[in-house]
Amino acid sequence: MSGLLRAFARLLPLALLTGCAAKSPALVSEALQPAAGGPVTYLVGSIGPLGRDSAYTNQRILLRKRGAQDGAAAWWGFAEVAHTPKDIEEVRGPDKQALPGEASVFVMPLKPGDYEFYDFQFFWNGYNGGYSSIRAREQFLVPMHLEAGKAYYIGEFRSRCLGLSACMFFHGDQQPRDEVIARRYTPGLPPLQALNLNMAPAFPFVMPLPQAAQPAK
Amino acid sequence: MKKILFLSASLLLAGCAGTQTLPDPRIEAGQDYLPPIAVMVDSLEHGTELRNYLRESGVFSKVENGVAGEGQTQVMVKLDAQRKVAPAPLLFLSAATLFLLPLQSDLDTKADFTVMRDGKVLKRYHYENYMAKYAWLLDLGIPEREENIRRVARAFARDMQAANQASKPLEAQR
Amino acid sequence: MNNLVKAALMAAGLALLGGCNPSMKPLGYHAQKPYVPMSLLVLPDGYTRFDVQERDELTSAVRSSGAFSFVDHGLPRKGYALVISQPPGEGAGFLVALNALTLLTFPVPYSYVHNLTGKVYKDGELLRTFSYKREGMSVGAWYVPPPITENQRQMLTELMRDLEASALIPHVDDAGQVGLVDQR
Predict the structure, then answer these.
(1) What residues of chain B have any CB closer than 8 angstroms to a CB in chain A?
(2) Domain holding B52: CATH number?
(3) pLDDT tens for residues B9-66?
(4) Does residue B4 lie in a domain region?
């Protein structure tokens, strides 16, 4: 018995530390993962909260293969157990009270084809162990065509919540900044080309980033 | 004795998968998106769900909620989704056995789609999907009910795509 | 005790309990002509059992008035919509909850304020807000039915009457929605 406890005591810090390692911000379901040695297309971008309001919680943008239920997601997480890397940490702006936001850069390898950005999700763990989440009730459709051997930059998705229930993403362009970080994760990344998606269908859940909120590069 | 128990158990478990009369409609991939449609569904419970499944079908470039603008296709849906659950005495009996007794949990869906443009009716479609399912233990049959509505939405999307293809000139045939 | 007295007491008890039926009675309004296809959104939007039950009660009460020929869910960008919400008021407080110690037998009084608003939207724009309020005093005990259900019923009735009188939402014309309703 004491031997078991000792072994457990030795393993526990290791287990805790491994659990604390950052998880990849790109989640791709099995059906959409590119086959080994097969054609690959990459979707690159960044996601995270603009500031430390209610948006400072688990959030993701959801994509799916057109006409199918197979999905992929770009995710930003902040929790003791699961979190994504702090690739971007904002410099404190002129408002000294506002705590800086963060973001993770995601590089999503996918099977080439037609995809749709169709929903998002914010979720909080309740104080009593409950769980609440927000999704768009009426989903939207932002189609994209991803070809093999190419890497596309979808943009940065920075979130903000007004209160608890009105959460949205601001869509901006930080390609030079995100490309550097993306190449660190995936050295063999093909040259990044801007996807220039029309996010109008996703209004009011996704809005263009207001110029004043552009952080220092 | 063991064989009988095993057979009856596997029969119960197998029989608990839901069956749907409408097969999963096959939608051709790689076609152009159809122009935006505005959909109104006469169902407070399933309206949003149906619209989301129409979006998921990948056929329409945009599925809006509400009234269509000028020149835009309007789809009015009369959705009659009746849930048939086991009568209360059976419900109590099953509860007494901790829900080991499977309970009927059916969903009969009848849907009428009316496609209009600028106030004129273009076409009507009618779909029926009867789902039979025995709910058992923790299996409440929720995915099957969602699948029921999903197939009706996909059937309409498939037919709209086919109608669009049929009305295109021959050079569009790939 | 005499059997008859026992039966009488039991009957009286059941009658009292029966009178405490919490579900809403039908509205005092019945529509002459239904509205054109429109959307309805009943708040609160929550998914707790209480929210769902309350939402279902309000929705079925309003639908049973026959005012809707075709009703969808949500707030569309184009088209008519009615949003029914209940702004927070006042209800039974902590003292009444404490009354559970007496099994809700001791009559603990409380004052209440119940609100109900109906907002009419056209093409996403707010046309008009109808607000209703009910105030009063009640008692938190098992033998006194809570006033909220009856208040909701009255306020909904007023809302539906005012909505018809305001003529903001057009009615289905006498020819009927030939294109929209499948005449089977």
Answers:
(1) 27, 29-30, 33, 48, 51-52, 55-63, 65
(2) 3.30.160.150
(3) 766 665 567 788 888 888 888 889 999 999 999 998 899 999 999 999 999 999 999 9
(4) no
Decide if A114 and B55 are in contact by the 8 Å CB cutoff: no
DSSP C85: E
Facing C72 at nearest CB: one of B40, B119, B120: B40
Say whether residue A75 is in contact with chain B using an 8 A CB cutoff: no
Chain-chain contact of C78 with B66 (C-beta, under 8 angstroms): yes
- Start-end of H helices in chain A: 2-20, 175-185
Query: Is residue C3 one of the residues assigned to a domain?
Result: no
Q: Could you tell me if residue B59 is inside a domain?
A: yes
Amino acid at A167: C
| Residue A25: cis peptide before it, omega within 30 degrees of 0 | no
CB contact under 8 A, C71 and B76: no
Residues 139-158 of A with CB under 8 A from B: 139-141, 143
Chain C residues whose CB is inside 8 A of the B38 CB are 78
Residues 6+ apart with CB under 8 A from B6: none
d(CA C115, CA C152): 8
Decide if A160 is inside a domain.
Answer: yes
Domain count, chain A: 1
Q: If contacts are CB pairs under 8 Å, which of residues 84-143 in chain C contact chain B?
A: none
Q: Give me B68's structure tokens.
A: 């269509």
Does B11 fall in a domain?
no
Structural contact between residues B79 and B41, judged by C-beta atoms closer than 8 angstroms:
yes
Nearest chain B alpha carbon to A113: B30
C74 inside domain: yes
Length of chain B, in residues: 174
Would C80 be classed as within a structural domain?
yes
Q: Residues B142, B143, B146, B150: what is their CA dihedral angle, to the nearest 10 degrees?
A: -170
pLDDT > 90 fraction of chain A, expressed in percent and rounded: 36
Residue C101 lies in domain: 33-166
| Cβ-based contacts of B119 with chain C (< 8 Å) | 179
Total tally of structural domains belonging to chain B: 1
Give the domain range for residue A173. 22-212
Q: Tell if the CB–CB gap between B44 and C76 is shorter than 8 Å.
A: no
What is the reported pTM? 0.83
CATH no. for residue C90?
Answer: 3.30.160
Name the CA dihedral angle for A124, A130, A134, A138, rounded to a multiple of 10 degrees.
160
pLDDT for A99-158, tens place per residue? 678 889 999 999 999 999 999 998 887 655 567 778 888 999 999 999 999 999 999 999
Which chain A residues are Cβ-neighbours of B62 within 8 angstroms? Answer: 141, 201
Residue in B48, B112, B119 nearest the CB of C73: B48
Tell me the shortest Cα–Cα distance from B9 to chain A, in angstroms.
Answer: 32
B93-133: pLDDT as tens digits: 888 888 888 888 889 999 999 999 998 999 999 999 998 88
> Which structural domain, as residue segments, surrounds residue B50?
33-165
Omega of the bond prior to A187 within 30 degrees of 0, cis? Answer: no
When divided into structural domains, chain C yields a total of 1
- Return the bridge partners of A166, or none: A162
In this structure, is residue A12 part of a structural domain? Answer: no
Residue C180 within any structural domain of the chain: no
